[in-house]
Amino acid sequence: MRATRRLTVAAIAATAALSLSACLASPGQSGEETDGADDPIVIGVSLPLTGDFAEPGKGVQRGYEAWAAHTNENGGLLGRQVELVIVDDQSNADRVASDYERLINQDGVDLVFGPFSTRLVVPAAQVAQDYGFLFVEPAGAAAEVFTQGFDNLFYAAPAIADDHYNHLADDILALPEDEQPKSIAVASMDDPFAMGTAYGLRDKLAEAGIEVVVDEVYPPNTTDFSGIAAKIADSEAELLIVGSQYQDGVNLVVALQQQGYQPQMAAISGAPTNAEFPAAIGDKTEGILAPTGYTTTAPYPSNEEFVEAYTAEHGTPPAEDEANAWTTGQVVAAAVEAVGCADPTPECQGQLIDWLHENEVETVVGTLGWDAEGRPQSAHLIQQYVDGEIKIVLPEDVKEADLIHPKPEW
Amino acid sequence: MTGALFAQSLVLGILLGGLYALLAAGLTLYFGVMRVVMIAHSAFLILAAYLAWYFHERTGIDPLLSLVITVPLFFVVGYGMQRFLVSRLRPISLTTMSVLLTFAIALTIEGLLGFVWTGTQRRVQLDYSGTSIEVAGVSIAVVKLIAFGLAAVSLGALYLILRKTSFGRALRATTQHPEAARLVGIDTDRVAGLGFGLGLATAAVGGTALSLDYTIYPSLHWHWIGPLMAIIVVGGLGSIPGAAIAALLLGVAASLLQVPLGTTWAQTVFYLALFVTLMIRPQGFFGGRLAQRF
Amino acid sequence: MPNASDLARASRPTTARPTAARVARIAALLALVAVVLLFPSLAPDPFILSVGVVILSYAVLATSWNLVGGFTGYISLGHAAYSGLGGYATALLITRTGLDPWLSLVAGGLIVAVVAIPVGIASLRVRGASFVIVSIALVLILQLTFQSWHTFTGGSGGLRVPRPFGPEVLRPEQHERFFYLHAVLLALALLTWWAIERSRLGAGLKAIREDEDKAQALGVPTFAYKLTALVVSAFFTALGGGLYALWFGYLDPIFQFSILVGTYMVLMSLLGGVRSLFGPLLGAVVVGYAVEVFKSQYGDTQFHLVATGILLGLVVLFMPDGVIPALTSFVNRRRRASSIREVSAEELANQREEAAR
Predict the structure, then answer these.
(1) C137 contacts B274? CB cut-off 8 A
(2) Which pLDDT does position B79 carry in this prediction?
(3) Inter-chain contact C353–B91, Cβ cutoff 8 Å?
(4) Helix/strand/coil (H, E, C) string of chain B?
(5) Which of C30, C171, C335 to mutate to test the interface with A (most CBs of A within 10 A)?
(6) For chain A, which has fewer Cβ within 10 Å, the N-terminal or C-terminal residue?
(7) Which of C130, C137, C140 lies nearest to residue B282, judging by beta carbons?
């Protein structure tokens, strides 16, 4: 009897839940078939607003919202207003795919923007590709993203991770033989993006014959860096390369300071461009090098407009995550204006994709163009802490200060 | 491996092992008095670290002083947790159900930490964060030395409480044979509650020590509970000296193995030790008879 | 007080059953099958269909978990280890050896079943505590190794799983096919549960759950039985993980070897009732649906963890046999307070324990 009743309950509950799941449909979204010229263009985005990637995810959100507000103030896209639908994927790959599935099928969005983090871009891009959507993303820079066979994907930043240090590598190799560093110590977080940046520089220098004496990878959850620091300090490597996100970079630098290690050159990706970095390592930043895809002072035409609009709204100037989000908006907008359509049909999306493959776009991070797999074809700027402030030192034509070498002690 | 690097790694391993020893002692204490695998132990550890960080952030006073608040607070919470939650579970399925219950508490703490302080990584910023003293070519960070000292003192105090006080005798009696302890007039329920409070107090001390030199974030407790559980199994479930010895040995082993193997693979030493122990000596290497049946 | 013949009846539910109950049972089963069969054509859009696939996948995992958790009472918090391994084994067999996807799926399941043997030997010789500790440790160690072993598993960069169907099969159609594939796998898992329950093995396992010492004293080969249950459970969990991987198309160690996934399996089974065939399925539907709703309502906070934690805590404290069983027995008691009741050996033991206090 008990089994029967439970089976009945199960059957009823299953029926109820499955039919209830239809109620997950958000109301009032059935009218997308009749999109008129005055309806807003709806753009769907899934972002990690909670969980591990929440901090940068929120930066991207601010960038997207600032872009949408700015666009609407200036007449919208194709004369239509822009409306963002942003949902939270909890930093989870299963969720991000399900989010885009929902945005495309249920919310009936006209366009999609990409999420944050390499780990979430691939599953999201898969969904977009399956439905034929253009997928411009602000944060999937690792080389792996571009070898998965996506033809709808475009990265809205100057360069993929491996090319971030290109200017620095060229500069080091151009130094006279006796000034070049003789040995390299590398430490990177086990993360496609962090490893991409660090290994890009490592491999270019190693190819030129500079010896790699320490090569460490640590899992993202590492909090104790004293062991790695001990190895690096013991090696006395002249060049230190760190691929970090933020806090891990701080921790490693503090651990290295604790062990009295003094490199002649320190290239750290991720952490130093963060505004809180100097305070976190006790203001001993002088001479630290870092690549960046964006600075508020970069001399590109639309950048001034961006910094002004963003600062007016938020009171603080934008950082790299915000800029990449804004760039994503600019890239999609350029394609939409050029092709003259913004709807979910495969024809329109296909035209948008084709247009971006063939054209370049003026953005706040410079002029962007892409190869067939969606890799942008520029390079990152190299910044350095000079007199307590982070300044562009490479490439020569846009530099704000001269590169300091060797690095003062920390 | 050069001699200097070996010495440095050895010292780092001992410093880390000391912290592990204190935390594992607390974890094995719960098991001793209640047969409870307390998954939430490391969640409370992270909670204490957050409280120390928040205390420092708000007042600017050294985070060590937050101990004055967190230790009594955690003791009371631990006592209450045993008396009002764990003791409600059916005795017949206590071990497995208590795992689920404490697991649920761990999830709740993690969720609340994220809710209140977001997922951003936090770190206490002290004037002496980067300072170290050099002894015979080995540099020892001051913050690590303080953390180790704190752990050693607390472990010593725990040992004295268990050995020299009548409460300690009652607690050991409860651990060894609850029925017999009841027969000689020990209020085992109350003792178990106090034992739980004592265990949680070690998490408060450990968390404060942790906050001095480590980054903290809400899901960090998973990173700690794995090695700690391995330590108490290797040391023998319920045995505090066993846990302390296993913690030091494995801490040093992980630190030394990091040099040839790298950070990730060195971490696996805890889990390898766990599997090997269960395969060849399930009662643990340093522990008592208790573990055989659990 | 229940008497011996009631107990005997409770343990042999098939014999001497009134025909009306049997008819009701068959009707309910048919209704369940009909709902599953019709769901893809009733789903208003592909998103709902994909939610259906996820819920069925949860149901497969929870039912597989229950093969060890329900029968033996040994709680595994780390079953995500087996589903994750199943996903990776399937994907690696396809990409490394070029094996047919469906053969890879089955082979992956078998490999994981073999892996489960030493794990079981290490963790099942002693009682519950070590088993739980090993189950959690297994997830943590696999996450570490799969994350760092770049050359073999793709490491932190993740692993794309090739599609079993060609590009001409559009995404909504894929959802539909995988929905039915998951339904078939679920049916197989349920059938296995059903077959074990009425076998000698099932009787032995339940004896272990109620009182392992007595079972051993009565000559039940407890270790061998527990190990068998774990291996069968790992096999089905791996198939579930593998099938999901084929559908989802992408593996990332952080999400594959996640403590939270294992928690969901436990929560679903406990909610629906670990002692019953359809309990985990019911729990999966409820939790799967709740997760979806919770996400759309409170998506922007870490609150889902708190909700999961509190729900699990409440179930453990107040309804350790499951919410549905607790409700059903409450209704039963109200309706026919004087008539016969079914009491499990554990309930009896508790009554005795309470009386002795």
Answers:
(1) yes
(2) 92
(3) yes
(4) CCHHHHHHHHHHHHHHHHHHHHHHHHHHHHHHHHCCCCCCHHHHHHHHHHHHHHHHHHHCCCHHHHHHHHHHHHHHHHHHHHHHCHHHCCHHHHHHHHHHHHHHHHHHHHHHHHHHHCCCCECCCCCCCCCEEEECCEEEEHHHHHHHHHHHHHHHHHHHHHHHCHHHHHHHHHHHCHHHHHHCCCCHHHHHHHHHHHHHHHHHHHHHHHHHHCCECHHHHHHHHHHHHHHHHHHCCCCHHHHHHHHHHHHHHHHHHHHHHCHHHHHHHHHHHHHHHHHHCCCCCCCCCHHHHC
(5) C171
(6) N
(7) C130
Interface test with B, best of C130, C135, C152 (most B CBs within 10 A): C130
For the stretch B272-287, pLDDT in tens is: 999 888 888 877 777 6
Q: Which residues of C touch B82 (CB under 8 A)?
A: none
Q: Between C337 and B223, name the one with better pLDDT.
A: B223
Return d(Cα B37, Cα B31) in angstroms, integer: 6
Alpha helical stretches, state H, C211-339:
212-217, 222-248, 253-256, 259-272, 279-298, 303-318, 323-335
Instruction: Enumerate the residues of chain C whose CB falls inside 8 A of the CB of residue A126.
Output: 249-250
Chain A environment of B222 (Cβ under 8 Å):
221
Length reported for chain B: 294
Domain ranges of chain A: 37-161+299-368, 165-292+381-398
Q: Within 13 Å and on the Cβ side, how many CA atoms surround A123?
A: 29
Predicted ipTM of the assembly = 0.85
Cβ-defined contact of B119 to A55 (cutoff 8 Å): yes
Instruction: Please give the C-alpha separations between residue A107 and each of A29, A66, A112, A273, in angstroms, as whole numbers.
Output: 6, 22, 11, 37
Place of tokens 């690097």: B5
Confidence class for position A30, pLDDT limits 50, 70, 90:
very low
Which class does domain A37-161+299-368 fall in?
alpha beta
| Lowest-pLDDT choice from A360-374, B195-209, C123-137 | C123-137
C5 confidence band (pLDDT: 50, 70, 90): very low
Q: Which residues of A touch B16 (CB under 8 A)?
A: 224
Write the burial class of residue A379 (CB in 10 Å: 0-12 exposed, 13-18 middle, 19+ buried): buried
Indicate the pTM of the whole model: 0.86
Q: Does B179 touch chain C (CB under 8 A)?
A: no
Task: Name the residue with higher pLDDT: A214 or C350.
Answer: A214
Question: How many contacts, defined by CB atoms under 8 Å, are there between B and C?
Answer: 151
Mutate to test the interface with A, among B6, B8, B127, B219 (most CBs of A within 10 A): B8
pLDDT in tens, C38-85: 888 888 888 889 889 999 999 999 999 999 988 888 888 889 999 999
Tell me the average pLDDT across C195-204.
Answer: 90
pLDDT at A28 over 50: no
What subunits touch chain C, counting only 3 or more CB pairs under 8 A? A, B
- Domain boundaries A165-292+381-398, CATH class: alpha beta
Q: Which fold has domain B3-293?
A: ABC transporter involved in vitamin B12 uptake, BtuC (1.10.3470)
Mean pLDDT of the region A266-282: 83
